[in-house]
Amino acid sequence: MSRLKRFLTVLVTLMFSLAAQAGSHINILVYHHVSENTPASTSVSPAQFREHLQLLQDNGFNVVDLESTLAQLQRGETVPDNAVAITFDDGYHNIYDNAWPLLKTFNFPFTVFVATDAIDQQYSDMMSWDQLRDMHQAGVTIANHSSDHGYLVRHQPRDEQWLTSTIANIEHAQERLEEELGSGVPKWLAYPYGEFSDALAERLQTLNYTAFAQHSGGVWSGSDFQAIPRFAAAGIYANPKTLLTKLQSRPMPVDEAQVSDMVTTQSRPELVATLVERNDFAKALNCFVDGAWQDSSWPSDLTFRVQSDTDLGEGRHRYNCTAKARSGDFYYWYSKPWLIYGQQDR
Predict the structure, then answer these.
(1) Which residue, among 87, 34, 80, has the nearest Cα to 61 in the 3D structure?
(2) According to the UniProt entry, where is the signal peptide (predicted)?
């Protein structure tokens, strides 16, 4: 276990106790396109997006500024009840044209993560720097999605040269954002495709970055702030009923410091997750591998184990585990992403 993970292990139980007392967590949504003319898997129509915003308003959710709310969580402070944040990845112009006017109507804050090379090269489907400045000056948070939106942990040996090159990619994007937008750009990164490794996350932590992934789940003070989960809300995940269930969920109190790297060569990766507080999850826990139910076991009162019973192909996969609360109409939620990549130099 790395020194960073050992340090997190020492702190996580105390942080969960504080968070549990305050009920302190936030659920973050991630979108890409708000358009009827873009890939269905990453899109919602303007009408669907308005429906989502109305859902948030009608059900008493507090749509919060992500930067200040994350800072509160990292300090172990209370955040507003039913806190939700809205994010967009990539910086497509339909966010400026279609999403922003609706968000203004509801007076909801939001964040846009942009890959700066596409902006510099003036891709026709991306926002311009002038549009990003317009949003930034209006209080929208604009943040880093790397320079080139490449696969950060694939196609290269995972060595110091790879890590140096990857960090240079990220730092270049940060510099371009600060050059074009001035002050107020947070030191954040949304991993392209949600792919990361322990080595990359640990280096980002030493550089004071907070990083966001694309696996599902809520955020609490014991979360890994180098791999913050977000709920996808587009394509097959846009259904208002299932989206409401996710928005009402709470983070399962898993000690992230004990969880293995996302990147693996194993075709049946094993998740061993340890809770930081005793809870009656055993009877209610349901786990899924890429959406298919998967048996789980409890080696101890605090630890559960999940492993796919079929070989998984190379690429991204996800284990999701949920448990119905003993009191209250909500689920605890935990997701573990995997990147199976057999050619990695491990």
Answers:
(1) 80
(2) 1-22
232 and 272 together in one domain: no
User: Using one digit for the tens of pLDDT, what is the confidence trace for 149-190?
Assistant: 999 988 666 688 889 999 999 999 999 999 999 999 999 999
Farthest CA pair distance, the chain: 56
Using only C-alpha atoms, the chain has a radius of gyration, in whole angstroms, of 19
- Predicted TM-score of the model (pTM): 0.92
Question: Do residues 298 and 332 share a domain?
Answer: yes
Higher pLDDT pick, 330 / 327: 330
Whole-angstrom distance, CA of residue 20 vs CA of residue 298: 23
Residue 96: other Cβ atoms inside 10 A: 20
Domain that holds residue 321: 256-340
Q: Give the per-residue SS3 of 198-225.
A: HHHHHHHHHCCCEEECCCCCCECCCCCC
Same domain for 286 and 233: no
Strand partners, 333: 251, 322
| CA distances in angstroms from 42 to 47, 118, 247, listed in the order given | 15, 18, 19
CA angle at residue 162 from 158 to 168, to 5 degrees?
Answer: 145
pLDDT confidence of 6, banded at 50, 70, 90? very low
User: Tokens 């970055």 — which residue?
Assistant: 209
Do 245 and 273 share a domain, yes or no? no
CB 97, CB 130: distance < 8 Å: no
Q: Which residues pair with 34 in a beta bridge?
A: 44
Give the count of alpha carbons within 13 A of 10, CB side only: 6
Backbone angles phi, psi at 201, to 5 degrees: -60, -40
Strand 292-294 relative to strand 263-264, pairing: unpaired
H runs (alpha helix) in 59-185: 66-74, 93-94, 100-106, 116-120, 129-137, 160-181
